[in-house]
Amino acid sequence: MRRYAILLIFLSLVLISGARGQADIIAIKAGKILTISGDPIKDGVILVENARIAEIGTEIEIPENASIIDASQKVVMPGLVDASAVPPVRGDLNEQSSEITPALRISSALDPQSKVLKRIVQTGVTTLYVSPGWRNVIGGLGVVIKPTAKTAQKMIIKDDAALTVVMGLDPISGNRIPWREPPTNFYYRRPTTRMAIIWMLRKSLFDAQQYATSKKKEDPGLQILCSALEDEIPIRLNVRRAINIRTALKLAEEHDLKIILDECTEGYKVAEEIAQKNVPVVLGPFYYYPGSSSQYREGREVNWNNAGILAKAGVKVALASGAQSQPIDLLTAATFAVRHGMPRDKALKAITTTPAEILGIPDRVGSLEKGKDADILILSGDPLKVTTRIERVILNGKTVHKAD
User: Fold this and answer.
1) Could you give the number of structural domains in the chain?
2) Bridge partners (DSSP) listed for residue 237
3) Where are the beta strands (DSSP E) in 167-223?
4) Residue 74 pLDDT > 90, yes or no?
5) In this structure, are 245 and 328 located in the same domain?
6) pLDDT in tens, 8-63
7) What is the CATH number of the domain that holds 7?
8) 149: which residues sit within 8 A by CB, 6+ positions away?
9) In a domain, 385, yes or no
10) Do residues 170 and 289 make contact, with C-beta atoms less than 8 angstroms apart?
């Protein structure tokens, strides 16, 4: 009798686990699917299983026990990818005791309970890049995350994703040269001029080159710079003015660096040069609202078709929130970019596939394809219409936001 009882319990568990497996399958019936990577699919179906897209197309057989989401009158597209997002972290973004902090990891300060994350999800962003602050010349390592998880570690999908380097005026903001008084706090530090910023950056790269040829392996900061010099870690250069953009391109050529340009407010002035070097650009909001005195001084010569001019020149362009104090709606940014001259297909890619490529995760996010993460938006209409609203956000196969 005991043997039969154990057998019955085992069969029950098998049936329950099978039922649960079937229940975890989600079928989204869509009026229109914007895959981004290919042609739109009309009256299509997306099957989601185990947090990934199992099938996508028009002639998809839906399992009997699948949960069905009726979006037959809606537009479905991939979750948005923000390549420069508002940081959901605790405390300061900068280690201001030093100007050169390549070993600092912003992933150590991630806050999964941050209120910023809720707003980010509501705007349709399902993947984001978080950077250290811009007060240091070399700020540290950024991280790519998903905006919902119980722990910081579970949010991370790519740590050490890029090294933050700032060539704008932010590192000199607040610094002052000691004059007739002792340097008693960290504001008495270099740099205090734009020339000093470039000098400190060049010196750091030179030190890393010297370190690479030495037998010493004790400095984690220099090891990270060596990895950047060897193209193991991309460098994200924060630049706004055309003069700084040209300097960044020259620096990259001298050291054969793999770089990404952040903000790039005056990119339209040097679009051909950026395209020639095959350097991708992550644009801050083109309707630029400076969030600091440094940004205000450097971000005044705005061209509202900055994205369009760069894209026309052949530059790989991503639209991002630019780490502003309040999250920027990427769909709205793409809508206005199209309004001012950016091609529609480029604008949609600029908030999906292009940032995914820049972040080095195109195999997981950015488009709706079989095998990719089930990060999906259900919209009331065309994504580039100002009246369209996000009705549902699905992240890793689970609904994380639903409009009332």
Assistant:
1) 2
2) 165, 261
3) none
4) yes
5) yes
6) 555 555 444 444 444 489 999 999 999 999 999 999 999 999 999 999 999 899 99
7) 2.30.40.10
8) 112, 155
9) no
10) no
